[in-house]
Design a protein that fits this description.
The protein is of the alpha/beta class. The chain is about 50% helix and about 20% strand. Strand 3 and strand 4 form a beta hairpin.
């Protein structure tokens, strides 16, 4: 498993319009790679951009023509079995959702990051059946994080 996980894997973290520092970045990178590996994929270039609600709302309006807040928007650049993309994550919404669902912030943030990676692995969440499969895959991914 070792060599497979590190195939040209470039996972990078950025912020836009907020101050946020993700703890344990190397552990998170390996965990995200393990999610892809568990789905038979490799990680190519993956950028995770932490931002505010307003920043993500503007992306949602501009690129998806949606006028509402969300926790994550995933731009997919996957080619074959090598996943890649940009995951824009609203720290504001992750915090609010953690409170609403009575979860720790770090747990909710991991779920959202896993959600984005799973989209890149081919999961969708448009129908009830797809949402159920996505939730099961998120739970499996969270179990990989320990």
């Amino acid at each position: 498993m070792g060599n497979f996980l590190y195939f040209c894997a470039m996972v990078r973290f950025y912020t836009e319009d907020i101050k946020f520092n993700l703890p344990q970045k190397q552990i998170v990178k390996r965990w995200l790679q393990s999610i892809a590996f568990s789905e038979g994929k490799k990680v190519g270039e993956l950028s995770i951009i932490f931002c505010s609600d307003n920043y993500l709302l503007q992306i949602n309006r501009q690129y998806l023509q949606h006028d509402y807040y969300t926790d994550i928007i995933t731009f997919d650049y996957t080619e074959g079995n090598v996943i890649g993309g940009d995951l824009f994550i609203s720290i504001d919404t992750v915090r609010a959702n953690a409170e609403e669902y009575k979860q720790r912030f770090d747990q909710e943030l991991r779920r959202v990051m896993a959600h984005g990676v799973l989209h890149l692995c081919g999961y969708s969440d448009t129908t009830d059946k797809e949402r159920k499969a996505m939730r099961a895959a998120e739970d499996k991914a969270l179990a990989l994080s320990g």
